[in-house]
Amino acid sequence: LDSRKVQPGTTFVALVGHVVDGRKFIASAIKKGANAVIAQACDVKAHGTIDIIDDIPVVYLDALDKCLSEIAGQLYTYPDMELIGVTGTNGKTTITQLIAQWIGLVGSKAAVMGTTGNGFLDDLKEAANTTGNAVEMKNRLASM
Predict the structure, then answer these.
(1) Which of 114, 104, 12, 112 is nearest to 56 (CA)?
(2) I need a labelling partner for 6 at 20 to 30 A (CA). Which of 14, 95, 106, 124 fits?
(3) Residue 62 zone, left/alpha/beta (φ > 0; ψ -120 to 50; rest)
(4) How many domains does the chain have?
(5) Which residues contact 85 (CB under 8 A, 6 or more apart)?
(6) Same domain for 136 and 102?
(7) Do the domain assignments include residue 84?
(8) What is the dihedral of CA 122, 125, 128, 130, to 10 degrees?
């Protein structure tokens, strides 16, 4: 999703965003070593078409933004887990920390994702954003 983070052997996903069209960065991602590109189709007729750019397949999918989470879920495997979502204006960090501590008291493990970081309470990793995109979220879940 971010061509600046592409490393050799990774797949680049090019979405049409509200401000930036990620498809503008396909060539850059390929130059950085992307092994494939999944790009949002311009229209329904382009769905399923494949271009080859510098021997790299570029697959176009309609409504990629709506199915990206499902695609990421197929790429990242993670154990069957119970998830709890906490929403609201204030207090989310406090509530998630308390829930994780309570779960720990009964002998289970709990991780958190939020402004204080991601992971288990005794080993939180700094987060660039409070909520990541679909691929980042699936990756985080797989690492817990």
Answers:
(1) 12
(2) 124
(3) beta
(4) 2
(5) none
(6) yes
(7) no
(8) -30
- Final residue before a domain boundary, out of 22, 47, 75: 75
Model confidence, pTM: 0.66
Total residues belonging to the chain: 144
pLDDT in tens, 15-30: 998 899 999 999 999 9
**Separation of CA 95 from chain center:** 24
Q: Does residue 82 lie within any of the structural domains?
A: no
Contact indicator for 112, 97 with CB cutoff of 8 Å: yes
pLDDT given at position 2: 86
Give the β-pairing of 56-61 and 36-40: parallel
Contact 125, 119 (CB under 8 A): yes
Burial class of residue 65 in the structure, from the number of CB atoms within 10 Å of its CB (0-12 exposed, 13-18 middle, 19+ buried)? middle
Range of the domain at 68: 3-75
Residue 58 and residue 42: Cα distance in Å, rounded?
13
